[in-house]
Structure formats: C-alpha cells, structure tokens
Design a protein that fits this description.
mainly alpha, globular, transmembrane helix, transmembrane, membrane
Length: 192
C-alpha cells in the first residue's frame, strides 16, 4: 500500500494542486453566476444573460454526464463540454476583470468557448489530469443547473403548478445524476 501510494504521488502528485485550483475557481465562478441570476424575472434587462448562462451550463453539464455513457463520439462530448465550461469561466473572468461590463463578459465567453472547444476535443482522447479537468468543470456546471432549476420547484408548487414542478424536479434529478457521473469520471481519469 505505501509503495503504491508513493509511486502514485511521484506520477500524479503535481496534478493534485492543479485540479484543486481548477475545482475551486470553477465552483466559485459558477456559484457566483448562478446566485446572481436566481432572483431575476423575464422582464429584467439581464434576462438575456440568464438564458445564455443557463444554456452554457446545461450543455456543459449534459455533455459531461453523457460523456461517461459514451452514446456519442468522445471527441464530440469532450468538445461540447470543454467549449461550454470554458465559455462560462471566460464569461466570469472577463466580466470580473472589466468591472462587470457585459460586452467584455461576452468577449470572454467567446474566447473561452474557442479555447475550450480545442482543449476539449484534444483532451477527449487523453487520460489523466486533462480529461479529469474537463469532466470536473462539466460536473460543476451540471450541479449549477441542478441547483438553479431546483430553486424554481418550490415556487412552482407554491402557485399550484404541479406539472411545471414535476418537470423541474425531474430535470433537477437528471442534472444531479449528470453531476455524479461526471465527477465519478473525473476521479477515475485522475487515477489513470
């Protein structure tokens, strides 16, 4: 046990702090963005950004969750997950660096999407830290969708819209399952 652990640390030890940093940054960015749009209504001027955020989170989370099931080519799901995940992180980073200027945030999303598409396409056939990083970001995006959609379920129940509450509850459960699958995949890829 001790010798295998030392061999693992020699081989993968440098990647542990890198993955922790990626996880902390992605979690902070996604949670900040999700919490900033929770109270918005369709009449809000920022509603368009809410739809874009939700779309990117949903694509990244679904692609990361489906990547583990392999119903589509790995490069396709890697490309979509990487593109959407890094678009979210680019949106957040450029938005914060520009003092929350929406135009620069959109530029950051485009830059992140281009870099993420290339990285996700390349990393889909790799193993180890790169595959783990893409799966980790995608899993956190799936959790962001599950949390965001899950907050609407009590509101739908309160106004008596049981049909909407059921659909939103099922969608929340699906994205929690995607989160579990993606984070499990990230863990397994890290150990290889």
């Amino acid at each position: 046990m001790g010798q295998n652990y030392r061999r693992f640390l020699r081989r993968q030890g440098w990647s542990i702090p890198v993955l922790v940093a990626i996880a902390l940054f992605a979690f902070h960015a996604i949670s900040t963005l999700v919490f900033s749009v929770l109270g918005l209504a369709p009449s809000s001027p920022q509603w368009g950004l809410t739809i874009i955020l939700g779309s990117f989170l949903a694509f990244a989370g679904a692609a990361a969750g489906l990547h583990t099931l392999k119903p589509f080519p790995l490069r396709l799901t890697g490309l979509i997950s990487g593109m959407s995940s890094l678009a979210i992180l680019g949106f957040y980073s450029f938005g914060q660096l520009s003092g929350q200027n929406p135009k620069w945030a959109v530029v950051g999303a485009v830059v992140g999407a281009i870099i993420g598409a290339g990285f996700g396409f390349w990393a889909a056939r790799q193993s180890g830290i790169w595959q783990s990083a893409i799966a980790l970001c995608g899993g956190l995006c799936a959790y962001g969708v599950a949390f965001g959609v899950g907050t609407w379920v009590p509101a739908a129940i309160k106004v008596g819209r049981w049909d909407i509450a059921l659909v939103l509850g099922l969608l929340t459960g699906l994205y929690l399952w995607f989160t579990r699958r993606a984070l499990g995949w990230a863990y397994r890829q890290f150990l290889t």
